[in-house]
Fold:
Amino acid sequence: MNILLIGYGKMGKTLEGIARQRGHQIAGTIDVGDDLAAFAAPVDVAIEFTQPEAVVKNLMTCLDKKIPVVCGTTGWQREREAVEGYCRKQGGTLFHSSNFSLGVNIFFKVNEYLARMMDRYPQYEISIDETHHTHKKDAPSGTAITLAEGVLLHVQRKKSWMLGATQQPEVIPIQSHRIDPAPGTHVVTYRSAIDDLEITHTAHSREGFALGAVLVAEWVVHQKGVLTMDDFLKF
Ligand SMILES: NC(=O)c1ccc[n+]([C@@H]2O[C@H](COP(=O)([O-])OP(=O)(O)OC[C@H]3O[C@@H](n4cnc5c(N)ncnc54)[C@H](O)[C@@H]3O)[C@@H](O)[C@H]2O)c1
Structure:
């Protein structure tokens, strides 16, 4: 396949290596200062890993150009519905995920399963911690937000999440830590006076995210609409 890489930073470069290993061609790379709208070489699929300020325009441009797009950029959940609506209107293909690693997606399911069980036990306070490298622009991480949304789906006593500490019993606090080097750790904690129950996922490298995104790109060229890891993994 001809893959267009939008964003040629840490993830863009890791994606390039994995895509080539899997026999794909890199149709081109787009970074700051390049004109995505004017890109004219043949493209089967675009993979977008940029930053929150850039992602929405890049996705819209891909949809305008009828290029299926796989997006890993985080921090744009407020615009998510509008972009998804535009994709459906255009009859395009948009796949997005806050995390492309298989392990994290299994972790998302374990998180929901645990939340369903813990709904019955209000003596447990719930919190989420995430640790990433200091270059990460958004906080909390998209993965932490997905974890919080998973808890909110099943635990009736929780109504929302917020970044930082809170005394409000209906709010899940998310603490973001930034240290180097740290590809990404997420911990969901249920704390009572008697004990703590924790589930943790720790990434060891970026390769898992990049491999997941390339595998999705291979699959998504045959799909239409707005898709996520649930559609791909079919857990
Ligand atoms: N979904 C996942 O599995 C996953 C995994 C890792 C990182 N991420 C997310 O992916 C994004 C990128 O991460 P990274 O570590 O590669 O960051 P990075 O800062 O190393 O790279 C981002 C690149 O995007 C470029 N860029 C900025 N504006 C642009 C624009 N308008 N058009 C094209 N390129 C532009 C920057 O110049 C930079 O080269 C972040 O949002 C991060 O949170 C997601």
About this structure: Residues 6-12, 30-32, 49-51, 54, 58, 72-75, 97-100, 135-136, 209 surround nicotinamide-adenine-dinucleotide (CB under 6 Å). The chain has seven helices and eleven strands. Helices lie at 10-21, 52-64, 80-90, 102-118, 142-154, 207-220, 229-233.
